[in-house]
Design goal:
The complex is a heterotrimer. By secondary structure, chain A is α+β, with helices and mostly antiparallel strands. In chain A, 30% of the residues lie in helices and 21% in strands. In chain A, helix 7 (289-298) runs antiparallel to helix 9 (338-347). Helix content of chain B is 77%, strand content 0%. Chain B has 12 helices and no strands. Chain C is an alpha/beta fold. In chain C, helix 26 (717-730) crosses helix 27. The chains are: A alpha+beta, B mainly alpha, C alpha/beta. Chains in contact: A-B, A-C, B-C. At the B-C interface, helix 1, helix 6, helix 7, helix 9 and helix 10 of B face helix 4, helix 5, helix 8, helix 9 and helix 10 of C.
Chain lengths: 505, 315, 853
């Protein structure tokens, strides 16, 4: 009797929860009176630990601050093209080593001080002297910076560089006041349209529009950026209408449902983030070209994308996203061919290969890894997943110590092919002296030569199967349907909020 | 009673002392150099050395420990290595958030559990009581994050009545505060309600066998009257014990609910700090949690003495 | 959970359901080791398939078979639970047992340090440890298991310590000590088996906690890493698919719930099965066994229905044809009729289990659950049958018209409420206003002889006698027509008993109330009552005026009861020389060295930091072959003295030599010789036998230590078996008793077992501490006579402690009277009894109820 009633209760609980779960599928409502709003709540995962991207690595800080709080002489637009920002215009001398920038007049920092050529000199100098990140090497090419006048700056490079001007549109090109007297970790002083109003750790950062912005004032005056530790919480928040825009959504399987929702818009923007199946070229078994190629054949990248990330993203075949000028379609280089993979493994004498697979504790990485392991098992490779807490453990073990065989990581930085594969001391351990020469020539050559040279570099890397760029990570944005001006393409790390506005309809 | 409290207070101090040493020793073997995490992966050795000197992580461990504990005693938890934030106001803020959440959750749990548990005990022979115990049994078996996820799915996403998460401090608007705190508190409280119901039930069952309840009836109280007037306060002692234990475990257990509802609580801060290898923050948060747990036990002792005159003996 | 329901075979639904659910998880985990329908980690099928024929529980986002994953996930769940519980139990239980045994043997300080140490762990809940350890050693299954295990150590230590302390307080551990068993042997044979049940419950509960915690950790990404399937992570990953593929959440959710529910139910079920209150239940049928040794006293009832015989006035209380049965059909009272006239004092006597208390409870409508009454209960001035009234209507009568005093003064009062308030409540409940009630309560408390200000006291601040006065004041507060008193003085000392009885008699006659006085003590009845009703097995066998019934008992049972209640003095032994009353003055010139010699012994305890003097300079000497009695009331120090003489406690100062073994506090001790020379029999036959050992093992235990076995004693297992058999025979137990367990025996039989255990290795001295105070009158005599006979047969020196002068006079030739930590008088029994020199002895003698015939 008691027995039976217990069972019945159990059954009832199961049924109710099933009904509850089904009820949730019916979609949601959000939006409402949006016209005239001048505030927006943006949801992000990956909270910045502080505000100082000159000493703290990672994309979270520039994502929040670049273009919104800090500006550069130039900026990178949604198509990946360099556009003027603080520099009204610029000229290049004949041997392409001297850039002369003409600065906008009347630009002030948020602390009220005017932006002048001296600030440019100081900012670039500080990258070279004070920055502690590896990014600082991007300014190695700068020989000298001179203030020609208050509004004119001349930058002299040691050699012509096609990459440098683009880099000036990223965080290394951010302009700071020359007499920097604040703690950048807690305060941000830039020329951008917003200032950081409040940092509530673990919760949100609020940005407020400046009254004295030099350019066109943004339509949105109050931005709240809420941070979610959990991708599902972020997705729930946009579904429930608690946030107006979920930027860089990390729950791809929810998108199909969200796309049905009339009140929401789902945009798959491009990014510069390549999900790279990194192979340690400096160590067995991946010091063997055949083994690396076997991996390339063994992995069905389409299936990886479809399974791990619900098909959101793009197959790229190389470390070059389509928004880069030197993009070429190399996706056909290693078609999915498990038989070929097994042959190559046999050639290498590496049947019954057993490897460890250091996987950072990030949703995309864990998802990708589980598919990859399944596919590798098909060709007889036993890959054992070892979780590496991200960032601390992964950075320490894989990135710094190079103590790994295979890993998977999202390289978000723009134009990072050479960063990853151009340096034999980088964690991938790919050592190809020829590549350096080609790359250097390309950088110094004309724009056309640059494109051709970089394409050659890209082919060399793919040919050597240095690692497997699985797919280009999408910058998925889910937003209130009434929100427009969303810069969904993450061509740099920056999340540009300046164009956002509420449509009147 | 003074003596009783004094001896407890002495134990409290010793416990805290040992606990801080344990925390310190445990965390000093963390993999990952705090300097490297703070400065980024490719920081120069000079920069690292300078950082260590600045933050005092190059001194001897004893000195570091003493500095840290000295700070704790004066209420100064230091400045985070990673976020450069003052930890004291940050942690205080988080303690408030988690504290509100936990206390409200416990309140909800008690409001449900005391009457339900009592009824389950009084009706322990009939179908009603058996059903109540069965429901509480099943309730105990449900992970609280599942409750949280379902609550979000229903009340925030599907019905849109309440926000899916986030937090508003009471000072920033009571209306918004209640809207934000309701779902996480219910999620946290519901499982606790099931747990406490079971304890209330067994405590009341125990009391129902007591002689003095029979005495009370013999002088003219009905069964219910005797139970309410004489039984419940006596059942209070075991219930206070379990409430104390549960609040202590909820302080850290709330982290799961904090994650589901994106509530910036102490547990979330701890997880984030562990992720950032924010050594000092982790150390200090754990220390604060330990202090809270130990103080809570002390408080439970106090409540005992208030509830039970037998413990008030001056000896 | 009904007491009656639980005893039905297979009536532990929780245990059964719990075991089935846990078994399900266990079998699933085991099967998954060798077989799952699909490879649980291989993404082989279409993703997000709903449950169907091919994939019973569908597939997940990677196209893996959910059924296979859940099966394999059971492994992790069980592994985490097992290791976590294992760590906690392996560390916590020994710690707790050690602390409990240290404290149990008086070394409180190291025990406290040990427990404080584990208490520090309390400050680190498992989840916190898991997060921090995860940061140090990397998150994962191992970290989670270890952290959860460490986090649970204090819980196990506490449970083990509590259980151990309880076991250590039991007389069977004392008996094992007295049998010279080592601490390790005691831990292994007595402590561990007896706490095993509680620890098992804790294991089960902690298993459930571990399963939930693992799920939570996996949810936070700190649990089992992918791709190893774990229920918690499955649930975490399912969040994205709510509404899209609900089975992904339901399946692991239900799996977790089933496992947790299973372990919790198993724990609850075990707790119920192991409940000590229920363990004693099976003793009831043993009354049947008792008939083999204790000859049946019951004769077929042939007395006429007393209700027909009695002269009928207007009875204050009128019980007619009262029958009380349990729901399971056992008859507790059979057609009982009984009347109490106004102002009349009626005694209801009978042994335990005869139905006395049921009669009282039925009269007040306070019968426990699972017991129902038929017949008629009438009260003067109240219409109709009380049995037909509801609780609310009954409550109006209780206290007002009929009230009751219970047996146990220590538990009859609410410990949290001041006694004045409790008395006043009896009046406010029946309409008196609060202020009047408070004043009247103070008056009443003064009237029952409590000091000023007693109303503000809490029950624990009063002595047992004072509490019983409070209960009396409460019962008489509303001047009820009938007072029912159920063994109101059984728990009190003789002198206090006398005062309370006098008080009660006076108050009842002052108020002209009827008294139904329930007791097993015929002497008390003869003092208090005018009329007596004899109850046997729920049936009234005899009734009449006290003098008449006691002088001319008609029924065989009454006769036996009377005979057993009369302990005639031991005939003066001619062989034993009377020894001077003050042994300290004795010059041991010619007399042989006494077997027990105690000189100026003091013993001071620290109780809550305050010194308490239990013995304040005691001297005595017991000669070989003497039967030495020690008499005193509770708190007189008699048991302390006994324990010191037996080497179970140490004196604070003075000199003690027992059987030639030096026990003085200043001297080093070698108890080996003492244990073989001296054995003990304890007061409570229910607590002195390890419930988990067979009677054979219990009796044989002293033989296991070779030092206890004197020349010619048994050293082989077979020899021990023979010795046990011989001993059981000697104490009058059937031979097949060796294979049975203590709970299958009655109290008297258990005391025989205890005697057998004490005598199996042929000691010279037998120390008996209140050996019959827990026994019914009819059995008491038999056990005393057995002791006396064995002492003669085996040339034993007997040292007997009792609060009952009559018992000592019946058995002993020599007596010492103790009061307040001192021996106030000692000498030959007859001399002390007939011509007491000390004031206290005289009082004691006067207070001892005499059976007036």
């Amino acid at each position: 009797m008691q027995n039976l009633s217990r069972r019945l209760v159990g059954a009832v609980v199961v049924l109710t929860s099933a009904a509850l779960l089904t009820a949730c599928s019916a979609g949601s409502s959000s939006g409402g009176a949006s016209a005239g709003r001048t505030d927006v709540v943006v949801g992000l995962t990956g909270e910045p630990t502080n505000l100082d991207f000159t000493t703290t690595s990672g994309s979270a800080i520039p994502q929040l601050l670049m273009n919104n709080v800090y500006e550069g002489l130039v900026t990178i637009d949604q198509e990946g093209e360099v556009q003027p920002q603080l520099a009204e215009k610029w000229s290049i001398n004949g041997d392409r080593t001297v850039y002369t920038f003409t600065l906008h007049d009347g630009v002030t920092f948020s602390d009220g001080s005017p932006f002048t050529a001296d600030d440019v000199v100081a900012s670039i100098g500080r990258v070279q002297d004070d920055w502690t990140l590896s990014l600082k090497s991007k300014m190695d090419v700068v020989k000298s910076v001179e203030a020609v006048s208050d509004t004119e700056v001349a930058v002299t490079l040691t050699h012509p560089s096609n990459a440098w001007l683009f880099d000036m549109g990223t965080s290394v090109g951010a302009m700071f006041p020359d007499d920097l007297s604040v703690d950048l970790a807690t305060e941000a002083v830039g020329t951008g349209p917003y200032t950081v109003e409040e940092v509530a750790t673990g919760e949100h950062v609020t940005l407020a529009a400046r009254d004295d912005y030099w350019g066109e004032a943004p339509a949105i005056t109050d931005v709240t950026v809420r941070y979610f530790a959990d991708a599902n919480a972020q997705a729930n928040a946009v579904r429930a209408g608690d946030i107006d825009m979920a930027y860089n959504m990390q729950a791809p399987d929810l998108l199909a449902g969200l796309e049905q929702d009339q009140d929401l818009q789902v945009i798959d923007g491009t990014s510069t983030g390549e999900v790279l199946l990194a192979l340690n070229n400096a160590r067995p078994p991946f010091d063997d070209l055949n083994v690396r190629r076997a991996i390339m054949y063994a992995i069905d990248r389409k299936a990886v994308l479809d399974t791990a990330w619900a098909g959101h993203g793009e197959l790229i075949g190389s470390m070059v996203p389509p928004t880069d000028p030197y993009y070429q379609d190399l996706t056909g280089a290693y078609p999915y061919d498990p038989d070929r993979a097994r042959e190559l493994l046999a050639e290498a004498g590496a049947e019954d290969l057993s490897i460890t697979f250091d996987v950072p504790t990030r949703p995309y990485a864990e998802a990708v890894a589980q598919v990859v392991v399944s596919q590798l098992a098909e060709v007889g490779i036993d890959a054992k997943i070892v979780p590496a807490e991200f960032p601390a453990v992964w950075l320490d073990k894989v990135f710094t110590e190079h103590d790994y065989e295979m890993s998977v990581i999202l390289h978000t930085e723009a134009r990072d092919m050479l960063t990853v594969f151009g340096d034999p001391d980088y964690y991938v351990g790919y050592d190809n002296p020829e590549l350096g020469e080609v790359a250097e020539k390309a950088d110094e050559g004309s724009p056309d030569q640059y494109v051709a040279g970089m394409q050659e570099v890209s082919r060399m890397i793919v040919d050597d199967a240095a690692s497997d760029p699985l797919f280009l990570f999408p910058n998925t944005v889910v937003a209130d349907a009434a929100l427009s001006g969303i810069a969904a393409n993450a061509t740099t790390e920056s999340m540009d909020l300046t164009g956002l506005r509420w449509s009147d309809s | 009673m003074v003596r009783h409290l004094a001896s407890h207070a002495a134990q409290l101090v010793v416990t805290l002392l040992v606990a801080t040493v344990a925390i310190f020793v445990l965390l000093r073997v963390l993999p990952g150099d705090p300097a490297a995490v703070a400065l980024g992966i490719e920081a120069s050795p000079e920069a690292l050395a300078a950082w260590r000197a600045e933050h005092g992580t190059d001194g001897s461990l004893v000195v570091q420990y003493l500095q840290w504990v000295g700070g704790l005693l004066t209420g100064d938890l230091g400045t985070s290595y990673v976020t450069s934030q003052e930890l004291t106001p940050l942690v205080a803020d988080r303690v408030q958030v988690t504290g509100i959440l936990v206390l409200l959750g416990m309140l909800i749990a008690l409001v449900v559990a005391v009457p339900v548990g009592t009824l389950a005990a009084v009706w322990h022979r009939n179908a009603g009581g058996v059903t109540l115990s069965a429901v509480s049994q099943v309730g105990v078996a449900v992970p609280n994050f599942l409750v949280g996820v379902l609550l979000v799915a229903l009340f925030a996403v599907r019905l849109g009545w309440l926000p899916s998460g986030g937090w508003t401090a009471p000072a920033d608007g009571l209306g918004e505060f209640w809207r934000h705190v309701l779902l996480p508190a219910v999620a946290l409280g519901s499982v606790q309600a099931a747990i406490i119901t079971r304890y209330v039930r067994s405590a009341v069952l125990e009391i129902m066998r007591e002689d003095f309840l029979r005495t009370a009836r013999a002088k003219g109280l009905t069964f219910t009257g005797a139970l309410v007037r004489h039984g419940l306060r006596n059942a209070g002692v075991p219930i206070v014990t379990v409430v104390g234990v549960q609040i202590a475990s909820m302080l850290i257990g709330a982290v799961v609910i904090e994650r589901v509802f994106a509530v910036p609580g102490l547990g979330s801060l701890l997880l984030d700090s562990v992720g950032n290898r924010d050594l000092l923050a982790v150390q200090s948060i754990v220390a604060v949690l330990v202090v809270l747990v130990v103080l809570l036990n002390f408080l439970v002792d106090l409540v005992y003495t208030l509830l039970d005159p037998r413990l008030r003996r001056a000896a | 959970m009904s007491a009656a329901g639980r005893r039905r075979p297979g009536a532990h639904p929780q245990l059964v359901i719990g075991a089935v659910l846990v078994g399900l998880v266990l079998v699933t985990a085991l099967v998954s080791l060798v077989w799952t329908p699909y490879d649980p980690v291989h993404a082989g099928a279409e993703r997000l398939l709903p449950p169907g024929a091919e994939h019973w529980f569908g597939t997940d986002r990677f196209g893996r078979d959910v059924f296979s994953q859940v099966m394999a996930g059971a492994q992790i769940t069980l592994l985490v639970g097992l290791v976590a519980v294992g760590i906690a139990a392996l560390v916590g239980v020994p710690l707790g047992v050690l602390a409990g045994m240290l404290q149990g043997s008086g070394r409180g300080r190291p025990a406290a340090v040990l427990m404080r140490g584990t208490d520090i762990l309390l400050a680190f809940p498992g989840l916190l440890l898991a997060i921090v350890l995860g940061a140090v050693y990397g998150a994962g299954t191992v970290t989670a298991m270890v952290a959860l295990g460490i986090g649970s150590i204090p819980a196990f230590a506490r449970v083990a310590r509590g259980g151990t302390l309880q076991v250590m307080r039991s007389d069977y551990v004392l008996a094992a000590r007295a049998a010279n068993r080592g601490e390790v042997a005691i831990a292994a044979r007595h402590v561990l088996p007896n706490i095993a049940g509680t620890v098992l419950v804790q294991c089960s509960v902690n298993f459930a906690i571990a399963v939930l915690a693992e799920a939570g950790l996996s949810f936070l990404g700190l649990g089992t890493p992918p791709p190893t399937p774990s229920w918690g992570r499955m649930l975490q990953e399912s969040q994205q698919f709510l509404g899209l593929a609900d089975h992904l959440a339901i399946v692991p959710g239900v799996a977790i719930a089933v496992a947790v529910l299973g372990f919790n139910l198993l724990g609850d079920g075990l707790r119920d099965v192991l409940d000590p209150r229920l363990k004693t239940e099976p003793a009831a049928p043993s009354r049947v066994d008792a008939s083999q040794v204790e000859p049946p006293l019951v004769e077929p009832v042939e007395t006429p229905d007393p209700s027909q015989v009695e002269p009928v006035e207007t009875p204050a209380l009128d019980l007619r044809h009262l029958t009380v049965r349990t729901t399971s059909g056992r008859t507790l009272l059979d057609d009982l009729s009984l009347r109490v006239a106004a102002g009349e004092r009626v005694g209801l006597i009978g042994e335990s289990g005869s139905g006395k208390t049921m009669t009282a409870l039925a009269a007040l409508g306070l019968l426990p659950d699972g017991v129902a009454a038929t017949g008629h209960v009438g009260l003067a001035g109240v219409d109709g049958n009380l049995l037909d009234r509801g609780e609310r209507a009954l409550a109006r009568l209780r206290g007002q018209e009929i009230s009751m005093v219970f047996q146990e003064p220590m538990t009859a009062l609410n410990p949290l409420v001041r006694v004045g308030h409790q008395v006043a409540e009896a009046m406010t409940l029946h309409g008196t206003d609060g202020r009047t009630a408070t004043l009247r309560a103070a008056e009443l408390l003064a009237e029952v002889g409590l000091p000023d200000g007693a109303a503000r006291r809490y029950p624990h601040e009063l002595s047992g006698g004072q509490r019983q006065r409070v209960v009396l004041a409460m019962a008489l507060a509303d001047d009820p027509a009938v007072l029912v008193a159920d063994e109101p003085t059984t728990a009190l000392d003789v002198t206090v008993q006398r005062q309370v009885l006098d008080l009660m008699t006076r108050l009842v006659s002052d108020r002209g109330a009827g008294l139904l006085f329930i007791t097993h003590d015929l002497a008390v009845v003869s003092q208090v009552c005018e009329r007596v009703v004899v109850l046997l097995d729920g049936v009234v066998v005899e009734e009449g005026p006290v003098e008449e019934v006691f002088a001319h008992p008609r029924h065989e049972y009454t006769r036996r009861l009377l005979a057993a209640s009369t302990l005639e003095p031991r005939p003066s032994p001619s062989l034993v020389e009377p020894v001077e009353t003050r042994p300290s003055l004795v010059e041991p010139v010619e007399t042989p060295a006494p077997l027990v010699r105690v000189q100026d012994v003091t013993r001071t305890y620290a109780h809550r930091g305050q010194p308490v003097q239990a013995l304040r300079g005691v001297s005595l000497a017991v000669q070989e072959g003497q039967r030495f009695g020690i008499v005193g009331e509770s708190g007189s120090g008699k048991s302390t003295l006994l324990r010191i003489v037996a080497g179970l406690d140490r004196a604070t100062s003075g000199r003690v030599v027992t059987a030639g073994v030096e026990l003085s506090p200043a001297e080093p001790r070698d108890l080996g010789g003492l244990r073989s020379a001296l054995q003990l029999v304890f007061q409570d036959p229910y607590g002195s036998l390890d419930p988990r050992m067979t009677v054979g093992d219990i009796v044989a235990e002293p033989l296991l230590n070779a030092r206890n076995v004197r020349d010619g004693g048994p050293r082989s297992a077979a020899g021990r078996r023979d010795a046990v058999r011989e001993m059981l025979d000697a104490v009058g137990l059937p031979l097949d008793a060796a294979g049975r367990y203590p709970h299958q025996f009655s109290g008297g039989q258990r005391q025989r077992i205890a005697i057998a255990r004490a005598l199996v290795c042929r000691p010279r001295i037998l120390v008996a501490d209140e050996p019959v105070s827990a026994l019914d009158v009819s059995v008491r005599r038999q056990v005393l006579d057995l002791l006396a006979r064995l002492a003669d047969e085996r040339a034993l020196t007997l040292l007997l402690v009792s609060h009952d002068l009559g018992v000592v006079r019946h058995v002993c030739d020599h007596v010492a009277v103790m009061h307040d930590g001192l021996i106030v008088e000692q000498g030959p029994t007859g001399q002390v009894y007939d011509d007491p020199q000390d004031e206290y002895t005289r009082r004691l003698r006067a207070a001892t109820p005499q059976l007036a015939r």
